[in-house]
Amino acid sequence: RAKLSGRSRHIFFTPELDQAQRDRSVLITSLRRAVDRQDFELFYQPQLLIKEQRLLGFEALLRWPQDTGEHVSPGAFIDVLEETGLIGELGEWAIGQACGQHRIWLRKGLIGPATTMSVNVSARQLGTPHFAQRVAATLDKHSMRPDSLILEITESALVQTIETNIINDIKDLGVQISLDDFGTGYSSLAYLSQLPLDHLKIDRSFIADIKRFPHAVTVIKSIIALARTLGIRVIAEGVEDGDILPMLAKEGCEGYQGYYFSKPLPAREMANTLKNLETVRLSHYANFIDLD
Ligand code: C2E
Ligand code: MG
Ligand code: MG
Ligand code: MG
Known about the structure:
The protein has helices at residues 2-7, 15-36, 78-84, 86-107, 123-126, 131-141, 155-160, 166-173, 189-194, 204-209, 214-229, 245-251, 270-275, 277-284, and strands spanning 41-49, 55-65, 71-72, 116-120, 149-154, 176-182, 199-202, 233-236, 255-256, 265-266. β2 and β3 (71-72) form a beta hairpin. The protein is of the alpha/beta class.
């Protein structure tokens, strides 16, 4: 207590706030230890072409396994990783791990060389020294085709790098860039045409709104149309209900990911999920007959 008030003299500590501070420093300590031990796991979520129901690639998503067997999602700790700078080290681990997994699946014949692996990258991580060189070394280590790697970056993270050369350095490697959570950040449309984007992901909040708000569809249609004008491929995230897929496909959204096809899963469970793809494809086709 004395220490805390010494550091932040002007904060009035209610018992609740005090407790929150303590919880937070406990969280920081255990995260630090977990990062040191590489005590994390990546789950993978398939991304599919909507019309063909063919596999486009995967998004790698961080999970923090607990002694209880539970896998904690990044929502609970990603901001702490950012603020402490731990995201630099852990994010680099994630890129290496995802590229290594891509190579394993490729060797097993489960995927093709053009199947992509998307990895999320935060603003702080992009700002770490020699980021692009380290990505290049990782690609090299796993003999991975640079265009099979997609870095997913949010609008606000991209905007923070606009004064630097980092995005161009990444593009020069041949790695693809995806604008994540589109519509939730800066939303300055001017940036869309200034940044060398390959993909844009419509945030899942828009997708979730479709059923409730008719206007959501109008917004989604405009996003897709705009992206297409700029030559950016569009992916819908958070698709839980297959009913909306024909509309998305009709507007020109190529791909999707979401619980409708699969939740993010541990690598070892992916083989079975991919085997199911054939069955899903057959049953899915009927919805699209009037589009062809
Ligand atoms: P994101 O990149 O936008 O990832 C999509 C999130 O939506 C994931 O949450 C995923 O599990 C969830 N999701 C996918 N399909 C559905 C669906 O149909 N319904 C619903 N309700 N949710 C769905 P997750 O795994 O909790 O990750 C949260 C965020 O944490 C990610 O958002 C990303 O910004 C960040 N993150 C995850 N892994 C990494 C990483 O390795 N590095 C960095 N820097 N950030 C990461
Ligand atoms: Mg993402
Ligand atoms: Mg997203
Ligand atoms: Mg998100």
